[in-house]
Design a protein that fits this description.
The protein has 14 helices and 17 strands. It has 425 residues and is α/β, with parallel strands linked by helices. Helix 3 packs parallel to helix 10. Bound molecules: ligand KE4.
Amino acid sequence: MAVGTRSELYRRALALIPGGVNSPVRAMRAVGLDEPLFVRSGSGAYLEDAHGERYLDWVLSWGPLLFGHADPETVAAVIEAARDGTTFGASTEREVELAAELVAAVPSLEQVRLVSSGTEAAMSTIRLARAATRRDRIVKFSGCYHGHVDALLASAGSGLATLGIPASPGVPTAVTADTIVCPFNDVDAAAAAVARYGEGLACIVVEPVAGNMGVVPPAPGFLEALRRLCDAAGALLVFDEVITGFRVARGGAQERYGVLPDLTILGKLVGGGLPLAAFGGRAELMERLAPAGDVYQAGTLSGNPLATAAGLSVLRRLRDPAVYAELERRGARLEAGLAAATEGAGACVQRVGAMATLFLREGPVERYEDAMRSDTERYGALFRHLLERGIYLAPSQFEAMFVSLAHGDEEIERTVDAVAGFFAD
Ligand code: KE4
């Protein structure tokens, strides 16, 4: 299709939608593209753009798809559900079934509330934690992202355990004044924050495996230390498992590392690719939520019938342990291939289960400051090199490759070979 048409579509998008996109990372400016991909369709591990170009997709919509694009069972479940109506604003049996699936899989859950996005789940979880503890302060970690929640859009100030400063215009300083930001994997900084602010500390919120600075595993003992610090301070431990849930293990990072949070945020995978997220924990905490309790939280499309159909279609298949054995095999093959392809090239591969990042810097990457020293220019060149060869890597160094059951050995080898070609030049 003529280049002009592409520009025409983007020009229309830019005129009607800020930046031409409905979420910033899709603009692909971080990797030097002046026009983003516009996708027409997806199938399995592949995307087709508006010009009919086909790409091997390692983004897979940022994590919701473990069976790939247009998974036949998911599509059939959604079509069947849609024939009965798309939304009722009233309870349905499928919401109860999905709640049961989450509670059965995630070790710390006794009850869950379904919402429509990870941001909404995180916002609601913070409100519940503050209500349950009657405290306002939150500890979060630099490089961890929990959606665009005002209280969590806080950047670290100077020093180690500092009161957050707004990370975006429009976030009142008063809102982030109760948010303390510590370096990820830094137990001493977290302990210092709790020692200094523990009296008023409602919760510590963390991505148990960071995915939003690139994939950074928890250092040995880090999650256990956060658990102990919360117990000592009478604060709640919140795991943001929007990415890790059902991806690093069926029960998420809390199953993989054996550390139980008080509250868990879920998203992406649990909706099977439709807008559905959730948060949950012990019943005595969750029962504080209206109408059982006095903490208000609500949503027109919460537990949407199409999203619960898609979610159940996926979650029920994840009961089979063979799924995780196969995801581990494929993730390990990708990791080994990329490591070999980049040996001695000033790069490092970090992976947990079915999420991995190729950092353009020597490893290990243990915290945000390490990740920020990656060569993002070179990452942009790698992104464009791969895109020209029909391979779509995350359009940002600070994201993950989302391995799925649609990525077979052929897709892995093709990607490894293309990466090797880039580093050989
Ligand atoms: P959403 O509101 O985008 O559904 O979820 C927010 C969120 C919460 N917690 C974690 C750990 C997350 O990774 C996210 C969202 N992830 C990003 C990509 N890393 C979504 C992509 C985007 O913003 O367009």
